[in-house]
Fold this protein.
Amino acid sequence: MKHSVIEPGIFPIFRLFTGLRLAFAVLRYLAPRDQGTLIDILGPGLLLLVLLIPLIQARYERIVLPIALVISGIEPFVTQALLFDQRPVDIPTDTYLVLHLWGSMVILLLPLVIIAWQYRFREVLAFTVGITLANLAMIEYVTGHEWLETMLVSGSLVFRFVLFTVAGILVVRLMQGQRAQRHALTEANLKLTNHAVMLEQLATTRERNRLARELHDTLAHTLSAMAVQLEAVDALWTAKPEQAHERLQRSIETTRSGLTETRRVLQDLRASPLEDLGLALSIRNLAQSTAARAGLTLDLHVEERLGSLRPDIEHATYRIAQEALANAANHANAHHLTIQLKRSNLHLTLTVSDDGQGFDPQQVATARRLGVKGMQERADMVGGTLTVESQPGQGTIVMFSVKVAE
């Protein structure tokens, strides 16, 4: 299959090699008592002009590359044919032909590699056969058929053909492996991108569900309680004004409590406190506010210096702590809460435990209601481990551990 996109790096390398050839030819021409000619300059000069076209119009690079390869393959033989009469008289013809044949290998090797780099083996074989036929035509034109029958010349042609073919096969195989790896990498990146989008959507859904639960447990309950109490106030307003006044005071207290809880929930909609406070202080504030809100005694052990942590690890740790603390405050009916956050060796460990009513972790419905699945997903996203230990009547222990350094 021919590749429509030019492989990166082909044109810069082709231009560099051709520019060096042109510079060397110019130096030979300008150097005193050297054998350089204008014909030696003409070939690489023309080739370099062709290779500069994509710098002006990039859309022509697919057309320019085959033209440049054909020029680079034919140019050495045309130059040799034009300069054959200027060869040193003290060198035998067959020796001169063989020297040129092997000398041109350096020039022909780069276009061979570029063809194998960009195209398939079929194009490599066509190039190898083409330069061999061009070499035969040049020898036939300048010396006659009898020199092709010498073992030195014909053997050199055959050996070069085999050498170029083997080199082309090796480069083609290497490029096929590279393209296969590049294709696999592209597919893997696409899968990772899709996975990241899916995880972002799941995270957004989980946050919405958490906020919905929080609003249901605060705002909805507050409004329900207010409705009941206000109905009682309305019923007692005329007959029992003192009781109506007492009910009204309770409604005011319920409203204030609900307003405080609603503000706390709305605070979660703002930017994460991690950005301003860091992980240690954020979890400390979260634990203290949760304990105060739920009337729990708090045993807090948070290391102030946790070292440098990746943002995704900080975010996952904070959200797991937030979910575990919300469960302890809203569902556990606990009296005592213990929080521990520490870094030992290469691991960061978070432990949240309470002395509440506990639950059976094997009950999937209960685990889902308490957000265990969401916490597990967050742990998996950063390569951490989450364990939940609980039994009815024996409290709950949530432990999260993640490797933070190599």
